[in-house]
Amino acid sequence: MTADPAGIRGIPRETLISVDVETAGPNPAEYSMLSIGACLVDEPDTGFYIELKPLTDNAREESLAVSGLTMEQLSVEGVAPDAAMAEFDAWVHAVTPDGAIPILVAFNAVFDWMFLDHYFRRFLARNPFGHSALDIKAYAMGAAGGSWGETSMRVLSPLYLDGRHLSHNALGDARDQAELFRRIRSARHSG
After folding, report:
1. Residue 22 belongs to a domain with what CATH number?
2. Going residue by residue through the chain (191 aa), what tens digit of pLDDT does each one get?
3. 7 lies in a domain?
């Protein structure tokens, strides 16, 4: 089933937005979201990036090592979470045309969506992406007819990203994810 691009049959137009977050740990109940990166899937130069002040001091060293962000630096230079979420919400609305709905696209979307939903609901009492997201890993599995294990970045990067590794900068990763999704989608439609 494909989306109705003009909304003629009552299916709203969709704006695909690739999103990546960097965090201080594995769940938003105990750990802070540290940065958000986003871009339009089909126009990746249209992007958004923000670093947030941590909500707590809780952090896992392995999570901080991935992003290179520090709790100390963010507590001084990060944007207050309520203001950061308002800025991100405004950007999402600005890039989503009237009559269209924003669709969160992410690699392992459940992780990114979980943090974003927690923060959106806590600070804005709503989530512009609603209660769902498009997961690139699941999309790849469906497109290839393979196994879940074959959807790891270790497998997909050589196939679709020329072997490039994610930078773990939220905006850089959002752009790489957008490219990955576009290439999987293109291969699916040409095959």
Report:
1. 3.30.420.10
2. 345 455 567 788 999 999 999 999 999 999 999 999 999 999 999 999 999 999 999 999 999 999 999 999 999 999 999 999 999 999 999 999 999 999 999 999 999 999 999 999 999 999 999 999 999 999 999 998 889 999 999 999 998 998 888 888 999 999 999 999 999 999 876 65
3. no
The domain of 76 spans: 14-137+169-182
Q: In angstroms, what CA-CA distances link 58 with 3, 52, 55, 123?
A: 42, 14, 9, 20
Please, where are the H alpha helices in 59-108? 61-67, 71-77, 81-95
Instruction: Specify the number of domains making up the chain.
Output: 1
Q: Which residues are catalytic?
A: 168
Tokens representing 30 are 């105990």
How far is residue 92 CA from its own chain's centroid? 12
Q: For residue 106, what are the β-bridge partners?
A: 135
Residue type, 30: E
The residues pairing with 104 across neighbouring beta strands, listed in sequence order, are: 17
Alpha-carbon torsion (154, 145, 180, 133), positive or negative: negative
0.70 exceeded by pTM:
yes
Give the separation between CA 187 and CA 185, rounded to whole angstroms: 6
Q: Which contacts qualify for 8-12: CB closer than 8 Å, 24 or more apart?
A: 12/99, 12/100, 12/101
